[in-house]
Amino acid sequence: MWCVASVFLAVGLLTMAVYFDQTERFVDYKMWAITIGLLCTFFGAGIGFYGIFRLMAQDDRILMLRTDGLFFLDNDRLELISWQQLENVTWEDRGLNVFEEGGRTVRISARFIGISGPNLVLRIKDVQRKALLGVL
Question: Which of the four, 30, 57, 74, 85, has the lowest number of CB atoms within 10 Å?
């Protein structure tokens, strides 16, 4: 989405540059250039703002790695899994699977900004190891 927005912005700005050309080479195309340039610029900015809105609208999901356990908050559910109860964590099918003692599995099918799924699993296991050793 960001690539599309940047392409539209670049095309819009370049075609508007034709409108502001002072050498009289593009006299016949000036009205088309400003029209297409403004449309592309506004459309590119709109796509960019929509992308930012989609990114910011997902802040209702929180995953925290605290000293007492794994804390997950979603729209309608709240999970706190202590590090002692956490058996294993895997990333499968675009979701985080958290296995607890006693066979209970918690599925978190959300993506988080700034970290991929496999790296999130490694980070959770590292924090769990440090928390159980008492070095956090």
Answer: 57
